[in-house]
From TrEMBL:
Its main location: membrane. It is a multi-pass membrane protein. It comes from Enemella evansiae. This is ABC transmembrane type-1 domain-containing protein. PANTHER family: INNER MEMBRANE ABC TRANSPORTER PERMEASE PROTEIN YCJP, MALTOSE TRANSPORT SYSTEM PERMEASE-RELATED.
Amino acid sequence: MSTATSTPSTGTPPAGPRPGAPTPRRRRRGLGQRILLWVLALLFAAWFILPFYWIVAMSFMTEAEAIAVPPHWIPQNPTLSNYLSFIDPQGNQSLVGGRAVEETPFALRNSMIVALATALLNLVISVPAGYAFARLEFRGSKALLIGYLMTRMVPSVAIIIPFYLMMKQAGLLNTYGALILSYLTFTLPVTVWVLKDFFRTVPRELEEAARVDRANWLQTVWHVLLPVSAPGLVAAAVFSFMTAWSEFMFALFMTSTRAAKTMPVVAANFATDLNTSFTLMSAAGVLAVLPPLILVLIFQRLIVQGMAAGSVKG
């Protein structure tokens, strides 16, 4: 009869890599992937940042330096004369850029008024509409929402002539009203959808608690719903503002005088004025980009929250 002998355990783990531990080959592969992602991210950032940087840099150059070969990436003799020429176009004859330079200050004012009015009216109209679609169940609501979006599928060139004739008959050409009414037609469907999705993420218990406190519907919306819905409201307003600020075709057809032209129309004139310099065009581009850029930087957190709300709860 044989007896089995047992080997005492020493308590030391067997040699070799631990289960699940990354091998050298796997670590090298992960490092390579991270490096590739960083390179792609830097290229993607350069694709967006370098053109804007070049415009900003050129706006502080003289005309001779702007067309120098090889190009100067950093202005050697920075100057503000390009921006000052918009304040006093006749003050420096060497920088006179024609009609576009003289109209730029008025165009900035017009664009700001039209964009702000469009954003405000979008909120006034889309808040009750979005609330109704989010809270009320009525026949044809889905078809109506789809109809709203279908209006965005119609090319602008297909409706620009009817809009022009309507505004002409109403006597609204060369007025802010023509532009604001036109912009509302293609910003409202999007803002209604954004606010509808965001209102659905707001708990109904908040409204029910307000009603328990004997608040009417307007008080509930003003004191409860709107403060909670600030990200969605900001996202809708910024979208409307930027769409109105950058729209070109309707503004080109509806306006022909200095009192109503917007910045995109005047910016296009820089390409037709023979005596306009590249540095003036760059300065005008910087002035046109700054307002929406500052707006997005200020409200970027609320914009992201508002636009992402619909993907969390439909």
